[in-house]
Specification:
single chain, about 400 residues, Heat Shock Protein 90
């Protein structure tokens, strides 16, 4: 168990110890006052008081520290065993029906300690049980209580069962919940690791492809320039100009893919892009899409280049979804507030497929016939890296609404 988990276990153990102090105090009071059994109450109260004092220190220590060593956990458990041995020895020894509580530290150590320290706990509990029944004081007779001493023992066993059941329900249920949360976190991290591995592989392949595409794109640009000077093609000047602009965009994208990783300094000008320019370039690439834009950035439009890639990926997904449904409309809303960027992109497609998760955890899974399964996964990874939030919801009518929020995204 790691240090954080051990400290969490000690906090649970401190809560359980307070329950033990309260239960022991009530039990001693009932046995002495109501049942009239002459137990050595000074010795018993001294043991309970020592346990309460130790628990005050333990509670303070667990709140003050974030981690704890396994040896510290063992020391806490040994204190509980020692106090239990004292209380059992001073209240009947082997006749005490609560002697079976020596099994509780062993059960707790199974889920909290490594094998060697767990064996040490079992040995300590065995020694404590042996000493308490060997050196223990006989339980005084209790006339009139369930037909003598054995009746009292049966009553104590009943109470012991109730106490043990309560401890198991309280402690082990919380431990089981913590274990389930840990399993879910491990599963989430495993999926994130697999996705990140795919992203790294994709980036490596993209850099290689960018290197290969740079030369043919340059050749195509020169060919378009030559065609623009041909007299027979003067009437197609506008089309050639658009084609050259598209080639320039492709070459810029290729250079960006082949460039080194983004600067570690978010304020580096080379790592910032103009959101309006990003949207204009996207509209040039997708001229058949009717983009309806709302919202205002209140003068802030320089963002991390990763946000530009995020916006383009989401717009492309929305455009593809709308075109598959026979429409060409996409809605975009961008707003800023205290340096945070909030966006909403809506398509007019067929909506979400309930059989598919809205935010895929892995690459190369797509519900689109010609989709690569990259856009949403990369978008989700980008939002996570920037400390933001991404959500997808079906609209009341037609299509899907994608919302993202990026705190501190605007410069």
């Amino acid at each position: 168990m790691n240090g954080v988990a051990s400290n969490s276990f000690l906090r649970q153990l401190s809560n359980l110890r307070w329950m033990a102090v309260a239960g022991q105090s009530v039990t001693v009071a009932i046995v002495i006052e109501l049942l009239g059994i002459p137990l050595p109450w000074i010795s018993l109260c001294g043991g309970i008081g020592a346990l309460a004092a130790f628990n005050l220190f333990a509670t303070w220590q667990t709140r003050r520290r974030r981690t704890a060593a396994d040896v510290t956990v063992l020391a806490h458990v040994l204190v509980d065993v020692a106090v239990l041995a004292w209380l059992v020895a001073r209240s009947g020894g082997i006749e005490n029906p609560f002697a079976s509580l020596f099994l509780m530290p062993i059960a707790l150590s199974i889920i909290a300690l490594p094998p060697k320290l767990m064996a040490a706990t079992a040995l300590a509990s065995t020694v404590g049980y042996f000493l308490s029944i060997t050196l223990g004081v006989d339980l005084p007779p209790a006339p009139g209580v369930m037909a003598g001493a054995f009746g009292l023992h049966k009553l104590g066993m009943l109470v012991n069962f109730v106490v043990s059941a309560a401890v198991i329900l309280f402690f082990f249920n919380r431990v089981a919940n913590a274990w389930r949360r840990s399993e879910r976190e491990v599963a989430r991290l495993r999926e994130q690791f697999a996705r990140n591995e795919g992203i790294v592989a994709l980036a490596t392949h993209a850099a290689s492809v960018a290197h290969e595409l740079n030369t043919p794109l340059g050749t195509l640009t020169l060919m378009v320039d030559d065609l623009a000077e041909e007299p027979d093609l003067q009437g197609h000047h506008e089309e050639l100009s658009t084609l050259r602009s598209l080639l320039e965009i492709c070459r810029d994208r290729v250079r960006a893919l082949a460039a080194p990783a983004a600067s570690e300094n978010p304020a580096d000008e080379s790592n910032l892009v103009d959101l309006n320019a990003v949207i204009q370039q996207w509209q040039l690439v997708r001229p058949t899409i009717e983009l309806r834009r709302t919202g205002a950035l209140t003068g802030f439009d320089r963002v991390d280049s990763a946000i530009g890639h995020l916006l383009q990926a989401l717009l492309n997904n929305a455009a593809d979804a709308s075109e598959q449904a026979g429409t060409s409309r996409v809605d975009l809303r961008l707003e800023s507030d205290a340096g945070a960027l909030r966006g909403e992109i809506r398509d007019y497609g067929v909506g979400l497929d309930e059989a598919q998760p809205p935010l895929p955890a892995a690459l190369f899974r797509s519900s689109k016939p010609c989709g690569l399964g990259i856009g949403l996964a990369l978008s989700h990874a980008t939002v996570e890296r920037l400390g933001g939030r991404l959500s997808m919801n079906s609209t009341d009518g037609q299509g899907v609404r994608v919302e993202f929020s990026l705190p501190g995204a605007l410069s």
